[in-house]
Amino acid sequence: MHRSLFVALLGLSTLVLSGCCMQVRVCCKTRCCPKRATPAPEAGPTEVPEAKPAEVKEAAPKARPEALYDGNAGKPESLLVAADSWQDADLVAFGELHGHPVGARHQLALLKAMAEQDRPVAMAMEFLERDDQAAVDAYLAGEIDHETFQNRAGMKPPYGRTHGPLMEYCKDHDIPVIAANAPRRLVSAYRKQDEDYGTWKASLPAADQAFLPEETSVLDDEYSAKFMRLMGEARGTSFFRSQSLWDDSMAEAMVDFKADHPDHRILFIVGAFHVTKGLGTITKYRMRRGKDEVRILTMTMDADPSLGFKDHDLGLGDLVLKVPQKTRARRKHGTTPKAAPKATKAPQS
């Protein structure tokens, strides 16, 4: 009896202690033991947040190598379509940006288009001076070779990829070439003296007089105002005398050719500055042959890579050929190159 009672009491104690331990375990799973992490509640179905629409960024204008427009209407134009409509023109001036490959390509295309039309064509060039005419004629006739011609005419390396193909086409197709400009040495001498043109010219040897126009004039117009803004008043006055002499020389050279070849049209290759808006050389040509039909293609640069037609492009020429503006390459480490020296001679473009 005594042993049975002892066993019974022992079992009861074990049961009570087991219950306590169970209670402790539950407590440790909840708030009785702060060192243990509270289990996360059971998650429901995951709700995916609605994606915000991506911000639409305006695309940068696509760069274009060139764009050709009708300069009077601002509409895109085809060079060949324009050339076809210009068959009645007596003078077609191509105002180029010197040495630009786009200009060189369009010049050759225009020359070919004009040569294939019914009226005969001749080419006049700013870059050939009147005392080069003998060398030009000898080369076109096959009397001297290419190297000799370049040496006599003082052609510089860019000639081969710019005006060289024009000369070769003229040579192959019997197209006359007019060396239109006054010799630089004579123009420079005229600028550096104070006599009037007639007196100064009469003082020169007869051979030199033959390379100069009969007369020259300094006009007060939009062209001169643009020149003065570019060169500055201090240098502009004397240099504009030179510029005017160049314009008169080129105009007279073409007028003289037209007098001897009335059926020929002339494709005039010249810097854009001389012919933009029908000013400069074109003004001087019209003063001599006011009834002639003249058409102008002028090149211009645009910082906008899309090369869209803008209000200030209106009237620059009958055709406006736009190309991207050239930017100077930066030096290493992000430094900018030194500023270019100021212009010291009259613009030729």
Concise summary:
The chain is 40% helix and 13% strand. The protein has 349 residues and is α/β, with parallel strands linked by helices.
Give short descriptive properties of this protein.
349 residues, Rossmann fold, globular
Radius of gyration: 41 Å
Structural class: alpha/beta
Average of pLDDT: 84
What top-tier CATH class fits best?
Answer: Alpha Beta
Main sheet overview:
7 strands, mixed
Q: What percent of the residues sit in helical stretches (DSSP H or I)?
A: 25-40%
Which regions are unreliable across 5 or more consecutive residues at pLDDT < 50?
1-46, 329-345
Order of helices and strands: HEHEHEHHHEHHHHHEHEE
Number of DSSP helical runs: 12
Compute the number of structural domains. Answer: 1
Task: Please identify, by name, the CATH architecture.
Answer: 3-Layer(aba) Sandwich
Any idea of the CATH topology?
Rossmann fold
Distance between the termini: 133 Å
Number of strands: 7
How much of the sequence lies in strands comes to 5-15%
State the strand order across the main sheet: 1-7-6-2-5-3-4
Shape: globular
